[in-house]
Amino acid sequence: MKSIEVIVPRNLIKKFYPHPEPYGENAFVVDLINGMYTDVFKRPNGEFVTITNDEKLIKYLTKKRF
User: Fold this and answer.
1) pTM of the entire structure?
2) Do residues 41 and 52 touch, judged by C-beta distance below 8 A?
């Protein structure tokens, strides 16, 4: 599966961690409320997005988006 960009709603993020790679101050690893982890990038408008090909993560984030 090809990687896609998915919005990560702020209400699904339990905890932020520094990103282990040098992507700048707008990159984090997050712990989601369902126990999954992913990296996120903060857009200038305040949205968090992840770029992933993990089908379970994509399904979870798209169902919980609203």
Assistant:
1) 0.86
2) no
